[in-house]
Amino acid sequence: MNLFNQVKTLIYKDVLLEWRSKYAINSILLYVVSTVFVCFQSFKSVDAVVWNTLYWIIMLFAAINAMSRSFLQETSNRHLYYYSLVNPKAIILAKIIYNSGLMILMFLIAFLVYSIIFNNPVVNMPVYLISVLLGSISFATVFTMVAGISAKAGHNSTIMAILSFPVIIPLLIVLIHLSQSSMLGEDLDTNLRHIFLLLSINVVTISISLLLFPYLWRD
Question: What whole-number distance in Å separates Cα of residue 183 and Cα of residue 141?
């Protein structure tokens, strides 16, 4: 099969496995809903800045919990089996695409729950939804790449935290600035540089994953 068909088959495999167990979706939903409810019981009401920052903090830890399991099912025997069938680039691309779809779904559900429990102060909703979309994809690409490296180190969570820290902090700062400007009612043209920066981070992360993962795969 060519690369496109390999990626499509691997995505279908991940979707089928998730649909059978629903472990990741249920665990993330439970985490998000319970965390938002606890925050609501603690603060009752918050201003727009705290509302925005709290949302991204909740989603950061939800993404870490979800993406840390990306390669948990991929045992050494399954790696060897995949090695004889598919291109390693197809594996990492399929993981990134699948995790991006999962994160988009989770971020939108979390935003809906968060807006219902807390009063939604967003003025420019389209720009905020763009930040949510780009943020979910960015978290998925970064943590998928780091999870792939961590999997080769015995699923060491410490390595995952150390490697993701230099990338995720600037990413969070850009996301908070972009979403914060939408809460002030600024239009899309004003935030083009933030959007371009997020897209650039995604392109660089995916490119590094495609270059690095085949070498990790050979070990």
Answer: 26
